[in-house]
C-alpha cells in the first residue's frame, strides 16, 4: 500500500517538474486516475487531490472575457453614478471612431463586447476604463488636449489599462479565490438559485474592490506608468505623434487643481509622469499635427474647449 | 513485473499527452467574443471575408504573430483572426449542451452565460436599484464600421503599422 502511494507521488512530482504549472491540473488528473486504477488511492482521495490542485491554479485567466464584460458593465454603472454621461452625440461619435481605431492596434484588440467610449459631463479632470471595454473621459480632460494626437494619447492610456487588465488586478486575492471556487463547483452544469445568490454576493464584492481602487484610491503609480508606456506604443503603431502624451501632461500640469478630488488624487502628478516617460526614453518630441487632423479635432470637440 | 510494465505504459501515455498538448490544442479553437471577423490578410485593414460569433469553433491552419489563419465549419470560409478573439477552451452555449461532450474537464470548458453573467447582473441590480445602466447600453450601441475607421485613418493622414505593424 505504502509503495503505491510512493509511486503515485513520484509520478506526480516528476510530471509537475516536467510540465510546469500550466498543465499541473491535467497531470494531477491523469496521475490520480493512475493512482485509482492501481488501487493506490481511493476515489474520494483522488478527488480531493484534484480539488486542491484546482484551487491553487485558479487565477485571473479563469475569468472568461464574457465575465469581464459583465463586471465592466456594472463598474461602468457605478462610474455613471458619480459622473453624468454627456449626450453630446458629435463628441461621442468622434471619441468612438478614434478610440476603436486605436484599440485595433493595441495588444488587446478584441474584447467580448468591444470598446466603447463616452464623454462625462464634468469639469473634473478624470477618466476610467472597465474590464468590459467601457471607457469614460471627462470634458475637463478633453480640455487638456490641444490636438487629436493628444486626445488619442488619453484614450490610448485608458486602452492600456484594459489591455494590462489593471481593473481585474484590483480584485482582492481572497475574493478572487472565493468567486472562482463557486464557479468551479458545478462544472458545466447549470447553477441553481443558491449558487446564483452566492455568485451575486461575490460579484458585489468584486465590483466594490474594483471601484474602490479605480474611483477612490487610484491604481499604483507603476500601473499608471505602464499604461503611459502602452499608450506611447499604441500611438506609434497608429503613426500618431507619440510626443502628444507629454504635451497633454504639460497642459494638465497647468490645469490640475492640487489636492483636488479628481485625477490629482488618483494619479501620480503629471510632472512625475513626464519624468518617467523621459527616463524610459518615451518622451518624444512633439511634431506638427497635419492641418486636416487639426480641423476635424476642432470641428468635433472645439465647442468644449 | 506487471506493475512495472503498467507504470511504463502510464508514463508513455503521459509523455504523449504532454507532447500532444501543444500540437492538438492549436488545431481547434473557439471564438470567445460576441462577434468577430475573418480577414483576407493578418491585419485589421484586411478585407472581411466572413463573420463569426461567440462559441463557434475554428480550425487553425497557420499562425503569424498575433494572428491565426483559420477555417470555419465546413472549411469553405478561411481567413485571419486575431489571437485575442480565440480561446482553446470549449465554449458551451447552454449547460449540458452536447457539443462539449462528457470527457472534458470543467477547466477545459467555459460555459457561456455562467459565472458573472446576465443572470448575476440582473440579480445584483435587484438589490442595487440606484444603479442606472441606461448609458451603459447606449454607449454599447455606438457602433463604428470598418469603413468608418478606414476613412478616419486615411482622412487623418495616418499610416498605421509603420512602427509595430500590428494592425
Task: Compile the SSE list and pairings.
The complex is a heterodimer of chains A (305) and B (167).
Chain A: H1 2-19, H2 24-37, H3 43-56, H4 65-82, H5 89-103, E1 116-120, E2 127-129, E3 134-138, H6 139-142, H7 148-163, H8 166-169, H9 173-185, H10 193-217, H11 221-237, H12 244-255, H13 263-266, H14 270-279, H15 291-301
Parallel strand pairs in A: 1-3
Antiparallel strand pairs in A: 2-3
Helix pairs in contact in A: 1-2, 2-3, 4-10, 5-7, 7-11, 7-12, 9-10, 12-14
Chain B: H1 2-27, E1 28-31, E2 35-39, E3 48-53, E4 57-64, E5 67-72, E6 77-82, E7 86-87, E8 90-92, E9 109-111, H2 118-126, H3 134-140, H4 146-155
Parallel strand pairs in B: 8-9
Antiparallel strand pairs in B: 1-4, 1-7, 2-3, 4-5, 5-6
General description of the model:
The complex is a heterodimer of chains A (305) and B (167). Chain A is mainly alpha-helical. Chain A has 15 helices and three strands. The radius of gyration of chain A is 24 Å and the shape is globular. Chain B has a single domain, classed as SH3 type barrels (Roll). The N and C termini of chain B lie far apart (59 Å). Chain B has 167 residues and is an alpha+beta fold. In chain B, the strands form three sheets. In chain B, strands 6-5-4-1-7 form a five-stranded antiparallel beta sheet. Chains A and B meet through helix 1, helix 2, helix 4, helix 5 and strand 1 of A and helix 1, strand 9, helix 2, helix 3 and helix 4 of B.
Amino acid at each position: 500500500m505504502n509503495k503505491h502511494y510512493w509511486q503515485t507521488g513520484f509520478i506526480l512530482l516528476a510530471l509537475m517538474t516536467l510540465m510546469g504549472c500550466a498543465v499541473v491540473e491535467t497531470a494531477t488528473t491523469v496521475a490520480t486516475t493512475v493512482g485509482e486504477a492501481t488501487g493506490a488511492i481511493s476515489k474520494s482521495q483522488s478527488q480531493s487531490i484534484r480539488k486542491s490542485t484546482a484551487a491553487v491554479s485558479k487565477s485571473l485567466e479563469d475569468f472568461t472575457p464574457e465575465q469581464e464584460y459583465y463586471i465592466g458593465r456594472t463598474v461602468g454603472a457605478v462610474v455613471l453614478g458619480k459622473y453624468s454621461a454627456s449626450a453630446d452625440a458629435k463628441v461621442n461619435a468622434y471619441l468612438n471612431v478614434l478610440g476603436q481605431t486605436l484599440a485595433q492596434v493595441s495588444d488587446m484588440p478584441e474584447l467580448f463586447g468591444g470598446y466603447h467610449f463616452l464623454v462625462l459631463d464634468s469639469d473634473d479632470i478624470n477618466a476610467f476604463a472597465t474590464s468590459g471595454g467601457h471607457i469614460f473621459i471627462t470634458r475637463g480632460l478633453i480640455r487638456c488636449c490641444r490636438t487629436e494626437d493628444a486626445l488619442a494619447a488619453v484614450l490610448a492610456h485608458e486602452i492600456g489599462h484594459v489591455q494590462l487588465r489593471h481593473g481585474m488586478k484590483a480584485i482582492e486575492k481572497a475574493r478572487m479565490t472565493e468567486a472562482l471556487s463557486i464557479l468551479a463547483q458545478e462544472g458545466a452544469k447549470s447553477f441553481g438559485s443558491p449558487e446564483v445568490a452566492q455568485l451575486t454576493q461575490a460579484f458585489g464584492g468584486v465590483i466594490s474592490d474594483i471601484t474602490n481602487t479605480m474611483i477612490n484610491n487610484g491604481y499604483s503609480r507603476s500601473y499608471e506608468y505602464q499604461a503611459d508606456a502602452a499608450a506611447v506604443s499604441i500611438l506609434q503603431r497608429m503613426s500618431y505623434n507619440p510626443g502628444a502624451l507629454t504635451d497633454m501632461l504639460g497642459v494638465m500640469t497647468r490645469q490640475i487643481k492640487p489636492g483636488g478630488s479628481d485625477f490629482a488624487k488618483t494619479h501620480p502628478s503629471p510632472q512625475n509622469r513626464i519624468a518617467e516617460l523621459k527616463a524610459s526614453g518615451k518622451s518624444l518630441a512633439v511634431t506638427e499635427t497635419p492641418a486636416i487632423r487639426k480641423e476635424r479635432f476642432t470641428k468635433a470637440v472645439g465647442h468644449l474647449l | 513485473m506487471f506493475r512495472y510494465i503498467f507504470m511504463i505504459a502510464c508514463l508513455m501515455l503521459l509523455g504523449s499527452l504532454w507532447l500532444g498538448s501543444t500540437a492538438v490544442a492549436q488545431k481547434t479553437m473557439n471564438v470567445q467574443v460576441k462577434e468577430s471577423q475573418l480577414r483576407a490578410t493578418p491585419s485589421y485593414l484586411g478585407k472581411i471575408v466572413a463573420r463569426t460569433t461567440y462559441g463557434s469553433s475554428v480550425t487553425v491552419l497557420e499562425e503569424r504573430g498575433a494572428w491565426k489563419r483559420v477555417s470555419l465549419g465546413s472549411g469553405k470560409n478561411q481567413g485571419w483572426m486575431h489571437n485575442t478573439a480565440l480561446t482553446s477552451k470549449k465554449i458551451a452555449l447552454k449547460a449540458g449542451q452536447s457539443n462539449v461532450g462528457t470527457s472534458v474537464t470543467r477547466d477545459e470548458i467555459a460555459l457561456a452565460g455562467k459565472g458573472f453573467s446576465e443572470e448575476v447582473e440582473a440579480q445584483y441590480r435587484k438589490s442595487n436599484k440606484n444603479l442606472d445602466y441606461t448609458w451603459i447600453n447606449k454607449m454599447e450601441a455606438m457602433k463604428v464600421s470598418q469603413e468608418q475607421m478606414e476613412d478616419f485613418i486615411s482622412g487623418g493622414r495616418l499610416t498605421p503599422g509603420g512602427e509595430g505593424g500590428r494592425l
